[in-house]
Amino acid sequence: WLLFTLAQAIPFPASVVQVLSPASWQLQNYASAATPSFLSISSDPASTLVEYFKGAMYLTIFFLVIALAWNRKRLKILAWTVVLVGLSEAIFGLFAHFGNWDVLSWDPQAQSIDEVRVRGTFVNRNHFAGHLEMTLSVGLGLLLAGLVTGRSHPTWRHHLVRAVRFVMSPGLLLIVVISIMLGALFLSSSRAGSLSVFL
User: Fold this and answer.
1) pTM for this entry
2) Which residues are paired to 39 by β-bridges?
3) For residue 43, what are the contacts with CB-CB under 8 A and spacing of at least 6?
């Protein structure tokens, strides 16, 4: 897949491109003043190279996660890192929104400060909502993984001990973090993002 993308950006002799991609050869031949001797299959090789490097980066990240997050402890560290990045985006977006920071330059569609929605460091609020959807699902996974199931004891002392243990555990912190991210998501006014989280 990456080699196929890279092959489209490499210059070939014009006769080879004419055989491999007649439409691209015709377009580039008509667009240039003189007949070029070397052409790429892609009509925009610079954008094709950008997509190649993005794909290579995604593949590298995939293999790094597989190679480095191979046990439960490392997976938990990775999950907490993802959740904390989502929390920092949400907090930044909330402070920028309620603090009336000068963020109009980030939102070309906003005519006044009242029209600026929570969107963190993203230009598009829907991208911000998509990011929070992914981090919320990781946070919910951490919360569910940390649940301890056991037999229920009817004594009030046991319930009190369980409540104190929960308050002192990372579970309560995770619930607060998830609540902050949910609030930022709904204040982004992204209808698709809110619906996706609800579903």
Assistant:
1) 0.70
2) 12
3) 24, 27, 28
C-alpha 49 chain-centroid distance:
22
Per-residue pLDDT of the chain in tens (199 residues, 90 and over written 9)? 899 899 888 888 888 887 888 888 777 777 776 667 788 888 888 899 999 999 999 999 999 999 998 898 999 999 999 999 999 999 998 888 787 665 545 555 555 555 567 888 887 888 999 999 999 999 999 988 876 655 666 777 777 777 777 777 777 889 899 999 999 999 888 888 888 888 8
Query: Which is nearest to 92 in space by CA: 10, 166, 188, 22?
Result: 188
How close are the terminal C-alpha atoms of the chain, in Å?
A: 33
As a whole number of angstroms, the distance between CA 154 and CA 140 comes to: 28
